[in-house]
Specification:
By secondary structure, this protein is mainly α. The chain folds into 2 domains: 59 residues; 48 residues. It is 67% helix and 0% strand. Helix 3 packs antiparallel against helix 4. It is elongated and about 65 Å long. The protein starts with a helix and ends in a 30-residue tail after the last helix. The model has no long low-confidence stretch (mean pLDDT 90).
């Protein structure tokens, strides 16, 4: 019989072949290749730093400037979240997280004595909605 460590390594390898993982990696790579998106993310980080720098001044902070940073941040954030690559990244991350939650719930159930051949953990992130594509629960699998 293989050790639990080797079986876990095999499970990790299988995870990396799963559709949710493959989709997530592809979405991550698309985000990294999207230069305008990366420029926007850098600009967002700069706005965040500028806001924090101003806020650190406490009483001497310029409230109008901070409000302006906040408006710029919100507008840029909305623009970033509207980017098709970012939308796909978040959807892919949700699908991968649903699968990981299922796996964790399954292992926890087995550790608590559930019958591995029939146990189905609750899947709060998925709920059997095929749109999440978790691939692990009854609704998606």
């Amino acid at each position: 019989m293989q050790s639990i460590q080797q079986l876990t390594r095999d499970l990790g390898a299988a995870l990396q072949l799963s559709p949710p993982y493959v989709r997530f990696v592809a979405a991550q790579e698309a985000n990294e290749a999207d230069e305008p998106l990366n420029e926007q993310l850098q600009a967002l980080d700069l706005l965040r730093m500028q806001y924090r720098f101003e806020a650190a001044k406490k009483e001497a902070a310029d409230a109008g400037l901070m409000e302006d940073y906040n408006r710029q941040f919100d507008a840029l954030y909305d623009e970033i979240m509207g980017n098709e690559h970012m939308k796909e990244y978040h959807a892919a991350a949700e699908g991968l997280n649903a699968l990981l939650q299922w796996m964790t719930g399954y292992l926890q159930g087995c550790a608590q004595g559930e019958d591995p051949s029939v146990f189905e953990p609750e899947q709060p992130g998925c709920g059997g909605k095929k749109s999440s594509g978790c691939g692990g629960c009854k609704g998606c699998g």
